[in-house]
Amino acid sequence: MYRQASRFLIRSLGGSRRRTAAAPRAFSTDVLAAPAEDAAFVEAWKKVAPNMEPPKTPLAFMKPRPPTPSSIPSKLTLNFVLPYQSEISNKEVDMVIIPATTGQMGVLPGHVATIAELKPGLLTVHEGSEVTKYFVSSGFAFIHANSFADIVAVEAVPVDHIDPSLVQKGLADFTQKLSSASTDLEKAEAQIGVDIHSALNAALSG
Amino acid sequence: MASAAAGSSAAVPFWRAAGMTYITYSNICASLVRSCLKEPHKSEAVNRENVHFVISKWANGKPEKPTIRSDSPEE
Q1: Does position A178 have pLDDT exceeding 80, yes or no?
Q2: Is the dihedral of CA B26, B27, B30, B32 positive or negative?
Q3: Cα–Cα distance, A18 to A132 (Å, whole number)
Q4: pTM for the full predicted model
Q5: Architecture of domain A5-29+72-161 in this structure
Q6: Angle between helix B39-49 and B22-35 (nearest 10)
């Protein structure tokens, strides 16, 4: 019922342009600016249970996404979360460099909306003159058109929590496992080990 | 994710070609990173990621003796 409410809204907004290919269709993940309430449902509810508030749907609880501003904002709002804690939440920063699978990607305010898969590597957050570095094991980065960036990682550690001797040992171990691996799966696991430890090495020295 | 415009087997990552899913890959990466940490952080991380669960098999409507498993989350 509430899903159709958004369709009604779009129809009234789009008007006659609805039929043309140029009419933009709203994403299902876009939260409406004002939570849409079905008037007919609320009426019927009030008849049946006048003393109780009509129930709210999840859409009513969601905060609407801040709209895309017309001019490029000066700061990027960053959210960096791990499964067990929220490392950075709603922090305004100048730039963040993320280790995407396609290479180190610098994200500035006004970046085009992007979804990037992260490879093991360094994530650097630049705010004024201070730079915070994290080593990220893997994850995703969602950059939205309104200069909000959400980065999710499974494991992220500040670089000074890493032990260089363990990294060297791990690199040697996995390089040796890679050369002696027989099945595809063993090779893949050894390759992952080599990738991770070389990335850790590079992060420690870079 | 593996279905690129070019067809079925275009540029899949090596772990997917070997039959691994992304979650397995990601968990292996995370546990390897955890194993390379300096001491107080390493034991905190290992404790945090420990998984203990109890499995009870049921037969004929009755639970049998439960087994306790405390797997580390690698596999």
Answers
A1: yes
A2: negative
A3: 47
A4: 0.71
A5: Sandwich (2.60)
A6: 150
